[in-house]
Amino acid sequence: MNDKNANRLLLIIGLLCAIGCLTVSVINVLEGALVKADVIPASEYTASLLPVSSDSAAIDGQADGQSSQQHTININTATAEELADFLPGVGEVKAQRIVAYRETAGGFDSVDELLQVKGIGPKTLEALRPYCRVSD
Predict the structure, then answer these.
(1) At what angle do helices 3-19 and 24-36 cross, to 10 degrees?
(2) What pLDDT sits at residue 71?
(3) Rounded distance, CA 22 to CA 113, Å?
């Protein structure tokens, strides 16, 4: 993605946010795309717009009203839909791959094991690491 397209994308995000029509999952996908495209360095990436509520126990710090700044998702218990909605840059396909790997391997022993999932390399892992956990 070149600078012109990145600027257009940022402008579109800003406009959609201004009128309140952008959902959190779309924001996470777009921000994840900006990280992947090196528009936002992974080291500076923070998901400022995380889901505000969830009925799932897989997502920490939300259902019980905690006000922690950083929420995480348990990659050993989350559904593919929850992973795709919550993790920046993870869509349906990658989320399904995460679940398939988890089922085949009998669960993740560490977040680093995400490297075994097709489509997740070191750069993506570093962007996902702050949002993932493997135990409750």
Answers:
(1) 170
(2) 86
(3) 32
Q: Give DSSP secondary structure letters for 51-78.
A: -S--S-TTBTTTTT----S---EETTT-
Alpha-carbon 78 to chain mean position: 12
| CA–CA gap between residue 12 and residue 98 (Å, rounded) | 30
Averaged pLDDT in 10-residue chunks for the chain of 136 residues: 67 64 51 57 49 50 47 94 94 96 96 96 95 90
- Report the C-alpha gap between 125 and 1 in whole angstroms: 20
Question: How is residue 119 annotated by DSSP?
Answer: T
- For the purposes of burial, counting CB atoms within 10 Å of the CB of 114, is it exposed (0-12), middle (13-18) or buried (19 or more)? buried
Helices and strands (H, E) in the chain, number of each type: 5, 2
